[in-house]
UniProtKB/TrEMBL annotation, chain A:
One GO cellular component term noted in the UniProt record for this chain: outer membrane-bounded periplasmic space
InterPro entries: LipoPS_assembly_LptC-rel (IPR010664), LPS_export_LptC (IPR052363), LptC (IPR026265)
Highest taxon, organism lineage: Bacteria
Molecular-function annotations in GO: glycolipid transfer activity; lipopolysaccharide transmembrane transporter activity
Keywords of this entry: Cell inner membrane, Cell membrane, Membrane, Transmembrane, Transmembrane helix
Transmembrane spans: 12-31
Protein name: Lipopolysaccharide export system protein LptC
Lineage of producing organism: Bacteria, Pseudomonadati, Pseudomonadota, Betaproteobacteria, Burkholderiales
Length: 199, 160
């Protein structure tokens, strides 16, 4: 009698063992499915942090003639893959042309799109263009400026102060197209022209 | 007033556009130019500057308001001269203001108009305080081209 119960016990033991083994293997199998599944269905999370940066750089855009059209340099340029844009610390932009003196623009920070066709400058923006036989020394300051280097256009809707020669003009909102020599202040213009030099 | 010539010029306007090639500044919208006692108002003003730094301003009437100017005169504490016209050309070098078409010019003592002139063209030399009136909107007078009207108040000698 005892023998039969022993073999029953042993049988029970085997059954339990089998079940446990199946559970163990099953969970491995389940884990595998989950891991494999996760890889395919959820997209690679778009990185918002920068993916590369360049230090002490000088970016030179060449015209079709091979002549340099403008330089963009800075202490550090960081690339953001999310919108393929750049952020530049202490940017310096130089616009070159054979028709007028070099225009230099500096600012604290700049953000540009991927092909640098539009550069937004922020903080202590200063434009400086030395005098030439046909034009006066021009200096302009503002706290924000949008530059479209390929079209030689600069614009802002922020207050600006322009020093042209000895004349000082302030206004809110500015548009300048260096190719056509056009320069507009769009509102609240105030100009101070000192008396001409005593003869 | 002669002393005005050596004072800084201050300009206010709604908009300004500068043509770098022709070096012309155009101010538009409620333009107010002040220099010393000289005050000029217009809808639009075009300012050019020659190499020596002399400024030439042309003021245009607009939006129902004529181009006008007002300036203190020497030789008395409250002597003023006022002028208005469709167009005023002001030459800072010669210190002459030329008023074109429907030009009026008044001399005042305080608020009282001492004499008043109307014509198609008035030129006023601030240095000599001499003004000439013509009946055509140009520097010359043509017979039959229109009347020049002048009202000159009697000077009462008692005040002298």
């Amino acid at each position: 009698m005892k023998d039969r119960r022993a073999s029953a016990n042993r049988f029970h033991l085997w059954v339990i063992l089998a079940i446990v083994m199946m559970l163990a293997l099953g969970s491995f199998w389940l884990l595998d499915v989950i891991r494999r599944g996760m890889d395919d269905t959820t997209p690679e999370a778009k990185r918002t942090e920068p993916d590369y940066y360049v230090e002490q750089f000088n970016f030179v855009r060449l015209a079709k003639t091979g002549q340099a059209r403008y330089h963009v340099s800075g202490t550090r340029m960081v690339h953001y893959p999310q919108n393929d844009s750049f952020e530049i610390n202490r940017p310096v932009m130089k616009g070159l042309s054979d028709k007028r003196p070099t225009t230099t623009i500096v600012a604290d920070r700049a953000v540009s799109n991927s092909d640098m066709s539009e550069v937004q400058l922020f903080g202590n923006v200063k434009i400086d263009r030395p005098a030439s036989p046909t034009s006066q020394h021009i200096q302009l300051t503002s706290d924000h400026l949008v530059v479209l280097p390929d079209e030689d256009v600069m614009k802002t809707n922020r207050p600006v102060k322009l020093i042209s020669g000895v004349n000082v003009l302030t206004g809110v909102g500015m548009f300048a197209n260096q190719a056509t020599g056009e320069f507009n202040l769009t509102s609240r213009v105030n100009g101070v022209l000192p008396p001409r030099a005593a003869p | 007033e002669k002393a005005d010539a050596d004072k800084p010029t201050n300009i206010e306007a709604d908009q300004m556009s500068y043509d770098d090639v022709r070096q012309v500044n155009v101010f538009t919208g409620n333009v107010v130019l002040t220099r010393g006692t000289l005050i000029m108002k217009a809808h639009k003003m075009v300012v050019t500057q020659d190499a020596a730094g002399y400024q030439y301003a042309t003021l245009y009437a607009g939006q129902g308001k004529p181009a006008s100017f007002r300036q203190k005169r020497d030789g008395g504490q409250d002597l003023w001269i006022e002028g208005e016209a469709e167009r005023i050309e002001y030459d800072n070098k010669a210190d002459v203001a030329k008023l074109f078409s429907k030009a009026k010019m008044r001399r005042l003592e305080g608020k009282k108009v001492t004499d008043e002139v109307e014509g198609e063209f008035i030129s006023y030399d601030n240095r000599t305080e001499f003004y000439a009136v013509n009946n055509t909107p140009s520097d010359t007078s043509k017979p039959g081209a229109g009347r020049v009207k002048a009202i000159i108040q009697p000077r009462n000698d008692s005040k002298k």
